[in-house]
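Quinolinate synthase
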Amino acid sequence: MPSVADLITRKAAQEATCDTELPAEPWQTAQNASYGPGASRGDTFAPLPTPQSPLPARYTQASPEELDAMITAAKDKLGDRVKILGHFYQRDEIVKFADFIGDSFNLAQQAKAHPEAEAFVFCGVHFMAETADILSGADQAVVLPNLNAGCSMADMANLAQVEACFDQLHEALPGEAIVPVTYMNSAADIKAFCGRNDGVVCTSSNAATVLKEAFERAERVVFLPDQHLGRNTARAMGITDKQMCMWNPNEPLGGNTAQQLAQAKVILWNGFCSVHRRFTVEQIEKARAEYPGVHVVVHPECPAPVVDAADSSGSTEVIRRVVENSAPGDVIAIGTEINMVNRLAQQYPDRTIFCLDPVVCPCSTMYRIHPAYLAWTLESLLEGRVENQIVVPEDTAADARVALERMLAAKPC
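Predicted structure tokens:
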């Protein structure tokens, strides 16, 4: 099976929609004004406040085999003192070393469930490491191997914009209770805002439970930053498109009239995932034409028409279970990040499993976690140095913890 790098180089070059520098090592492209190799060229780049420092040559000049040996040796010596958390979207070269693999909900639970660990090495992106720091103990360190591993969706909403949104909403809708619900893909200070304002964090696993409970406390919800997860979840609950409106943070009243806001049960932030936005109904129709009987499963970050056209939708954990519960000979077309799809295809060679998107833009910031960074991080811990520690200020963490605990209590449907 072709590697993800091979797929990007071949397919992206044909359609000119993805950055074809994916095969380059992350440290060679770290200064580029984009989200990195393989990213959608349509993303607006928001630089991280603390850029990654250069890696020593020992790591950048090492072969893949040498890096594997470094990681294995350091991991063996560290033992249970350090837990490696790996998101489903990580490259295979990283996932094979993870102690726990899962979606953001699973990994948040693991960060809370292991008080015996001295440190967590989070192979994911920045907002995930922040969440692990908030939920883990005060004496536990959380490390992000590459500080440049951000998230374009999380960058589509900042605290000032969210505070301005609620100021305008309270002025337009005086006296009305409005609950903020933020997707896990958001910064710690936005999670803290939710904690202070009777709000909650959700994941794609439990968004339906969270939204249902939010409506028990208020008649109106602001869902951020992913419009598609919010819309798909609300529609599945019977909320119509006419009962939803979009909030553009760059427009007065989010680009709405006061009447539109008054009619809305769900106010959707104008954010999205560049990977999942690429999936289309036409791709599903093509899959059905080529493979009659194919089962199409997509992530709920996809646009609503794509979710409607699919046979099922759900979080990365749901997608994994769909494949796990399938039978030999089944054909499954998947609308989510290519690293996960390729891994599932390798794990189940007796099934035909493929990605709906022929261009295959990966989650480019996830891809910035390279074995060289993991080797450097683990060897530093072995030497008593904590590099790239993610620390959320306690005043922010305390409020964010409230919203996150509500998330953990909201079990997926």
